[in-house]
Specification:
It is built from two helices and four strands; from the N terminus they run βαββαβ. It is α+β, with helices and mostly antiparallel strands.
């Protein structure tokens, strides 16, 4: 199956809780490429590219985040465009 790319913004208590590091570790575990960055408004922005099945797993993980996070929303900015 062809790789897909998704751009999301995660809201809640997601800064200062190890979200970016944990997300990068999960990306490595799933074989996903991309980036995870803090935004000035307290949210986290992420872009993931990989196989659809692995991207779905990553999105499910983002809805929970690491143990200290309190995710209140995951907004898909762009979904399923070919990379």
């Amino acid at each position: 199956m062809a790789a897909v790319k998704v751009h999301i913004v995660i809201s809640g208590q997601v800064q200062g809780v190890g979200f970016r590091l944990a997300a990068r570790n999960k990306m490595r575990e799933l074989g996903i490429e991309g980036r995870v960055e803090n935004l000035a408004d307290g949210k986290v922005e992420a872009v993931f590219a990989g196989e659809p099945r692995e991207i779905r797993k990553m999105l499910r993980w983002c809805k929970l985040g690491p143990p200290l996070a309190n995710v209140t929303g995951v907004e898909v900015v762009k979904d399923k465009f070919w990379c």
